Amino acid sequence: MPEHWFACELHCHTCHSDGDFTPEALMETARERLLDGIALTDHNTMAGVPQAQSEGAPVLLPGVELTTFYGHMPVLAPSRWVEWRDLKPAQGDLLLRRVKEAGGTAGIAHPFQLGTPICTGGHWDYEVKDKSQIAYLEIWSEGCPFLNSSNRRAIALWHSWLDQGLRVAPTMGRDWHRPTDNPLPAACTYLGCSRDRLTAEAMLAAVRSGHTVVSAGPHFVYTTDDGQSPGDTVRAGRRTFSFALSFDRSDRLNAETIVCEKLIVRTNGGRAALEMPLEQRPTAWEAQLLLEAGQWYAAELWGSIGEKKEQLIAAAAAVFAV
């Protein structure tokens, strides 16, 4: 059960691939964005990692975005290069096996992005039989939810995988290339850790264990009455969920005002197990749910972002009832 949550960005690029940042500038901008940790995921190279190493926040998690012809796969903390150039779309399982053999943790970036020729391989086209080797899925690409309509399809894909019993962590990837043109600078993935000091190892463990919350900025988390949090297994039966919300970081960074108006807890099939109206700026509240064994339950916040109404504000990883 994570006790501490950290603001992190898991999809970043520098001038070592197609970004405008130098590695040093990326780290400095991340500090300005009040990020606790970042994963550097340049396209097909880890050359920028040594330059990005620094003391203090943000913590750096080395990674690479395998930018193939049939999908973009961010890989966290591989020990060596993962060869993909000889693979065809039907060989997604082999690619994942190679990632595992290299000690990496595999994710899928922007699965429904427009592909070739607009973005070579940006659309996920690999066939994967054993999806348990996929640790995380970008359900939210780019910092602002309404700027990328394919996010809705990615969330539906995540729900379908949960229905299949897969415990895939939801993440947000800003796909960060430059400091400009980034609405909602506070948007990030919050990672849950057991210790109050973030490390690269703790970031990796949080992703692997599914302790993630995607947010347009506000810090959002919940715990159950038996002490479980997003990504955990929880006992079936009537459970009390305690929710906490903070706008401290979001208000310091976002120009747009975010107002949370509704809580939705979804379960299998993406259906709503609970809908609950909220005060405009709640900080803590509780709700009771009757959890059925074999079902998953994932909490969402909805509201307004500036003038945009009925927007997804945050989505927390699911708990799994047994």
Structural write-up:
The model has no long low-confidence stretch (mean pLDDT 95). The chain is 17% helix and 36% strand. The chain has 322 residues and is an alpha+beta fold. It starts with a strand and ends with a strand. The chain contains 6 helices and 18 strands. The longest helix has 14 residues, at 150-163. The strands form 2 sheets. The chain has a 15-stranded mixed sheet that branches.
SSE topology:
Elements: E1 4-12, H1 23-32, E2 37-40, H2 49-52, E3 59-67, E4 72-76, H3 92-101, E5 105-108, E6 134-141, H4 150-163, E7 169-173, E8 188-193, H5 200-209, E9 212-215, E10 219-224, E11 233-234, E12 237-246, H6 248-253, E13 258-266, E14 272-277, E15 284-291, E16 296-305, E17 308-316, E18 319-321
Parallel strand pairs: 1-2, 2-3, 5-6, 6-7, 11-18
Antiparallel strand pairs: 1-8, 3-4, 4-5, 8-9, 9-17, 10-12, 12-15, 13-14, 13-16, 16-17, 16-18
Cα end-to-end separation: 16 Å
Order of helices and strands: EHEHEEHEEHEEHEEEEHEEEEEE
Structural class comes to alpha+beta
Radius of gyration equals 18 Å
β content, as a range? 35-45%
Tertiary shape: globular
Helix content: 10-25%
Throw out a few tags for this protein.
single chain, 322 residues, 15-stranded mixed sheet, globular
Summarize the structure.
By secondary structure, the chain is α+β, with helices and mostly antiparallel strands.
